[in-house]
């Protein structure tokens, strides 16, 4: 029998040798790829680029925040004051653009090259300034990031505007990776070298995260912190906030309040019209939306970890607000198209008009692909998405935390959409959502309580109206007015604080030199 086995092995020795050769080669290839020292390594048994080689205990995300100026007539403001002189980009010397040819970053590199001498080619002048606007000169002549407005994404919500919100959550980590990698390439180009390593996403192992302690930081202490950091660049504020505070318990303590305060008080700025030329306002609007992009990407990635917590609910409120602001930014986009058509040859030679021209060109195809051609299309697409976000909030908020604000905002979105479209069904649906609020649990703040009570009193005086067809046009206008002015008091306080800390009139003459 032993002789028979030996004969069998001898007769089939070539087959066995071939088999073992294939197995060994495959094993060697997999081992080589998975243990490569190259920063562009492949991981054959998993997604090819999101893992780092070392083990990490928990996912690390960066976040960015921002808020609308409200319904008071102001809009988003431009970037921070006192961040240094307006500078020019580097020319990309020492940057190997060839390695990005044919990749998803090829257009980015072209945009970087195209903006590297932007300030040399176009004039940065201030025209038609209203001397009686009451706006500090330091605000008027502050630094504006024209290059970033062109190169980065001032309309980051357009790409996924037709997708359900759950898809946005599912793809958030991938989108954050792309966002960080893009920023790395921009920094690499502007430094003129390639010293920064490619971005990796580190994934935690289940069960390794330690219990988080609650943050104890009362309102007075939070206000002092926010006042102290207000003048810092927004990115620096976020980095400091995340590294110091985002590791605390998302349900207990003051973290959720702190996230909200940071969003509304520091990382959101008011814009002040100061010129008869509306192109300044469009530029400032796009400037502010640079921060909306960073906020959206990083907060969406953090949402899956915080969904179903108090902090997660605050994140959802802010994300809904980002979409509201983005709808207004698209209004500025369409208005800027008209400014460009009417621009004189002299205006086309200015830095702000050239920036608007490139932004309009950049998003033209994407908006066409998303079937957004008019302001009506913007309103319909963004109202639908915002309702989807609020529905997610209502279904996920723990123990009814701020659920009254959730239903109020859903009703507000539906009401505004119904008024814009003259659709009584949407108006009735808004009233139905508001009528649910008295029976909801009182857990957490109800920030829209005054506006809600005013609407309920009006409907009660009209005989507890529940169907919009029974409302006169005057009554509808009254509700519209309540919604539009609900933030007026908060916006006035915000303006007073910013004027005091950021734009004091005593510094107006000093700002004449530009900043």
From TrEMBL:
Residues 77-91 have a biased composition (Acidic residues). Keywords: Membrane, Transmembrane, Transmembrane helix. Residues 493-502 have a biased composition (Basic and acidic residues). Residues 63-100, 191-221, 493-515 are annotated as: Disordered. The chain crosses the membrane at residues 12-33. It comes from the Bacteria. This is Uncharacterized protein.
